[in-house]
Amino acid sequence: xxxxxxxxxxxxxxxxRFLTKTSMGIGxxxxxxxxxxxxxxxxxxxxxxPISDDEIQKQILNALPHIAPKAKRIVxxxxxxxxxxFETFDYKPGLRNMLGTDLPDSIRGGQRLxxxxxxxxxxxxxxxxxxxxxHGQNGTWVSELMPYTAQVVDDLCIVKSMYTxxxxxxxxxxxxxxxxxxxxxxxIGSWLSYGLGSDNKNLPSFIVLVSKxxxxxxxxxxxxxxxxxxxxxxxxQFRSDKDPVLFLNNPDGYDGKDRSEMLNYLKKLxxxxxxxxxxxxxxxxxxxxxMAFRMQTSVPEVMDISNETEATFELYxxxxxxxxxxxxxCLLARKLLEKDVKFVQLYHQGWDHxxxxxxxxxxxxxxxxxxxxxxxxxxxxxxxxxxxxxxxGGEFGRTVYSQGKxxxxxxxxxxxxxxxxxxxxxxxxxxxITYGETDDFSYNIVKDPVHVHDFQATLLHIMGIEHExxxxxHQGRRYRLTDVHGEVVKGIMT
Length: 494
Description:
- It is a single chain.
- 36% of the residues lie in helices and 15% in strands.
- A hairpin with a 6-residue loop joins strand 13 (437-438) and strand 14 (445-447).
- The chain has helices at 4-35, 37-46, 53-62, 105-108, 147-151, 169-178, 188-196, 259-277, 280-303, 310-316, 326-338, 357-381, 452-462, and strands at 73-79, 132-135, 140-143, 156-163, 206-210, 236-237, 343-348, 388-393, 397-402, 413-416, 420-426, 433-435, 437-438, 445-447, 450-451, 472-474, 477-479.
- The longest helix has 32 residues, at 4-35.
- The chain is globular and about 75 Å long.
């Protein structure tokens, strides 16, 4: 006996499909009655019928890549919390004689402060207590905290003139990862996955690794979410425990021998549902089921580090043997890049030093410096750096003045969005250069500013995408990663 509710639903869908598919045909019949059917048929060849959104989207994707890509893949080392540029790359020796003096009003220029330091009676300047020295062919200044990074400085393109619109962590990180401060937009990796697809059908094109036990500001899965793009383009987080990908392993008592047959029947059922509903998420669900099936074999293989040499573990440091650490994730990132995963994102928390900065940043550099440099060296010796782009940086910088109590050897720094440092290395960018300049207080940019949207536009360009042309229609508007801004930074590109 048929369910009357289901029969009613079927009729609604049939009526909807009829009206959708015949709306243009009804107009054509009306035109034929006025002009004559022969003339109408002739006009059909002359007058272009409106192109559907689906067809427009197909044309957008078929046009990719827009230009010859310089990189095949990206690994993005995101230092969550905002590393201080004063203790890393932006050397300001003139500040050493200004300990405790107030930040001049002419430098601040009325720029807003966070609620954490706005109530301070003064903004005392805090010179770094760490030494800098010059490295590489161009004498690039690097802090003593980063001796391993100093060894690869000739491979780096250091951008000292980054700036952002946001002064607090959540909107600033969301802005960097999605191009907008509000949740709900697709992340960089999702845009790349959607636009360029995958070079390895057995692994996701966008994989995320988060350092374990690093503390600091919280991270949210929406930072690697697909937003309004089809769900198969969201980032897949690989974890360090016995189940690297949640719900991937077979349940207890099931050997999986008939998994392929089950998926084939499931695909047929989903196809039937798709014929009824025409919901693009059904196709995404089919793709995800099939990917999960292939990943049951590919993930254990890529997570296995037993074949790595002693020299490799020594290169990345002792933590590289401990799954889930930053060093281990850098090593895993190299393995994923070898498998042609298009976008690998590492998150390392703990760079938010409002107080006790000298000890805090020293510890963070001890955890990350060796493995970061090792990744550059390892990619280079394997011939992968020439078509891989490596990115390092956080969501904003830190203030020249101390937040809270300032002493000769201890201080904190507040958030500073007006200027900070990031670096890139590998495919598409010039090596051994420093781009952009800040003033003597690293408070304002004086040369070659680079906005977050400029940075995102440049990443897409290096991957063969013109950022203004990769769009997706959502709620009546065409969106893109760079919103309505962004210029490719030609000065850093090869």
